[in-house]
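Agenda item 2: acetyl coenzyme *A complex prediction
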Amino acid sequence: MTATAPSATPDIHRGLNGVVVDTTEISTVIQETNSLTYRGYPVQDLAARCSFEEVAHLLWYGELPDAAQLGEFRARERALRPLDRTTADLLARLPETCHPMDVLRTAVSFFGAEDPAEDDDTPAANRTKSLALLAKLPTVVAADLRRRRGLAPIQPDTSLGYAENFFHMCFGRIAEPEVVRCFEISLILYAEHSFNASTFTARVVTSTLSDLYSAVTAAIGALKGPLHGGANEAVMHMLNEIGDPSRAEAWLDEALTSQRKIMGFGHRVYKHGDSRVPIMQEATDRLVARAADPEVTRLATLHAALRHAMITRKGIHPNLDYPAGLAYHLMGLDIPAFTPIFVMSRIVGWTAHITEQLAHNALIRPLGAYTGPGQRSVPNLG
Ligand code: ACO
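Presented output:
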């Protein structure tokens, strides 16, 4: 039988590049000013003046909290931080050869399996689940970091803020205020970024009326990739590979010639520089200045040299992962924990979008233009 020719190819938007799929009230990049706003507030102003908890409240409830609302929000988050024994034991049994993002993905999936209200998708139930995830994810990340160092977990401290408590659970001490502030700025900048790949993944899962844990588990999987959140780890691997600042230009030439993607550079939305980078770079520079250490100076010089070479050579600017990767290293955090830290922050954006998706849901189901063989008969295989 003669094969039927495939029909004409329609207009295709590979990678959904430039496609607007829905409305959102949560955040936007204003192209004219190259600025990112959360619920209307410029993110650099939020990073300069707010705590991460205040920004989480803003993203979830639409407004910054007053003192009483913040007090209640903090008290509820702090009470939810501990892991139950079953979860802690389960996560401790996962092979250390797996990436910490696998641990986090497993943890969220397990939280869902344990929750009798898993399939309750009312706004109130999802708010409770979102807050519990926000509270527990740092406990998982810190325990896993310590396990890989051969150390016992440290229980959360309810007297400490979100960022301070993370350092306490990782290292048994609170980092200096400058370090904690830099970390908190990174959390604020990472918290939300409209319809990025992982958030869109969460919205796709939610659009089928699946549960919040399934959506977040899938989003963690999407964030893990080096073209998305995994880039903050890849930045440090790349800097370690280059080694000496004097090698930056030659390394870049060779990498570009062999069609390598330079990690921490480029962005689907920002073509003239990521609006979050200047404030993160300033905070990272403050860590470099306070360290006054030749090894830190070498890394910072290399970081600046590669940035300069990439902008000059390709006109491609760094994204948030470029300064954040270096900052986390300077804070003494292990490279495999960098993307999990991104999750600790982006959980806010994901869950805000899950709520918004459910509020006016439409199943997300695009089309593909078929380019395979035309219809044909199955041959006789006997
Ligand atoms: N290194 C080398 N070339 C690059 C880079 C890069 N980092 N980014 C873009 N380009 C080049 C592309 O090769 C392409 O060149 P061509 O037109 O000659 O083919 C051109 O710039 C356009 O790039 P696209 O890949 O089409 O841009 P896209 O919007 O699809 O990709 C992406 C954006 C995936 C982020 C890309 O810039 C990249 O791979 N960057 C490195 C990974 C990274 O840092 N990801 C983190 C993103 S931000 C975040 O998740 C917080």
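Discussion summary: Residues 15, 227-229, 231, 261-268, 316, 319-321 surround acetyl coenzyme *A (CB under 6 Å).
Owner for follow-up: CH.
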